Amino acid sequence: SDSGFKKTLNELTVGSEVELGPIAGVFTLPEDTNKPLVFIAGGIGITPFMSMLRYLKETENSYRITLVYSNRDQGSTAFLNEVQRFKFIKLILTMTDDPNWACEKRKIDSEFIKEYFPGVNNNYYMVVGPPSMVEAVQTSLLEAGVLSENIKIERFTGY
After folding, report:
1. Which of 113, 46, 117 is nearest to 83 (CA)?
2. What is the DSSP string of 11-39?
């Protein structure tokens, strides 16, 4: 996208000094490892999950994770090969606009949630992606009967 952030970076001259702040945020793995985690990523929203998944791959952990990763097509799916190689997660890929994709093609709505996660409140849902997708998934989770305390969201804006 042609975000303000990217425009600003493009306007910098070579050699410009840039000050970066410390890594911050509250979108982190929950301490409780007893409740299964459902990571729901849309597009580049996979990025924070990749950090978590790489960390968990390298450490002994007891998290049970399902990654639901939605994209338009395989060609625009960041980290596709890597997520397919994670053996410690259950992976659900959905490509909403890919004629060559023979598997799941639906958008993530309340029926999708209820079908894949019948005991909806047995899980803790973490959702990241473009704001409109995150809002739609959050609404769908609530419509499916997920309690708000079982949902954590992060919107990726301006990337």
Report:
1. 46
2. HSPTT-----PPP--S----S--SSPEEE
Residues 6+ apart with CB under 8 A from 10: none
Task: Give per-residue burial for 47-73: e unless 16+ CB within 10 Å, then b.
Answer: ebbbebbeebeeeeeebebbbbbbbee
- Side-chain-facing half-sphere of 116: CA atoms under 13 Å: 22
Q: Which two tokens stand for residue 120?
A: 């909806």
Tell me the per-residue pLDDT of 22-62, one tens digit each, with 9 for 90 and over: 777 789 999 999 999 999 999 999 999 999 999 999 998 89
pTM over 0.90: no
Q: What are the residues facing 154 on neighbouring strands?
A: 128
For 12, list phi and psi in degrees, rounded to 5.
-70, 145
Got the DSSP string for 52-69?
HHHHHHHS-----EEEEE
Token readout for 73 is 């097509």
Q: Which two tokens stand for residue 66?
A: 């399902």
| Per-residue DSSP letter, 132 | H
